[in-house]
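User: structure tokens for this one?
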Amino acid sequence: MKREESSILLGIIPARSGSKGIKNKNLRTVLNKPLIYYTIKDALSYKEIYKIIVSTDSIEIAEVAKKYGAEVPFMRPKKLAKDNTSMMEVLKHALMECEQIYSSKIQGIVLFDPTSPLREKDEIKKMINIFLKRKPDLVVAVSKSRKNPYFNMVKTNKNGYAELVLKGNFVRRQDAPPIFDLTNNCWIFSRRAVLRCSRIPQKTIAYEIDSFYIDIDREDDLKFLEWFLKLNR
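Assistant:
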């Protein structure tokens, strides 16, 4: 391996066979290509990433992934492909497997979720550069939230009444502390964070993205994605 050990990044695309909202979601066709194709194509474009692998329990997904250029060095165990399996468990398994298979120590994992296929290349490159230079435990793509727990988000208390999620005396939402939504656009974890299964470690850098993104959860999301891609061709 030619890269310095400190810069070895492993790109992981998690794609299990089961999905509740949309059946066979990762293989659903969008403009004559399976959904996972768009994330594989994007992930392969970053020279800073040593390998792009797909972690899956599905032989069909594995074959499709290899067809479009990703590697599938192992099959994910069924016990790590359940509805209640945490993503951190999946990443830890992939990290340990790949270190043995490739005989290399992986310093960071770049997580690309195939259900969030729209990414701005420059934003991801900046996130990678931040991770390599500042060496945090996580760099995560976030976007400004439209709702604020200090102002216009409520929860139900033990008496059944609504109250603000966080207490404050703010007259305008703009006066409250800024709040960000975590996106599935891109997460870059350190080796340490993955081995500890720490989803939001103490040394986390939130990188605000300005580009449009989408999370595919429903059939309507797939239709919108196809429309968006057609519009932006």
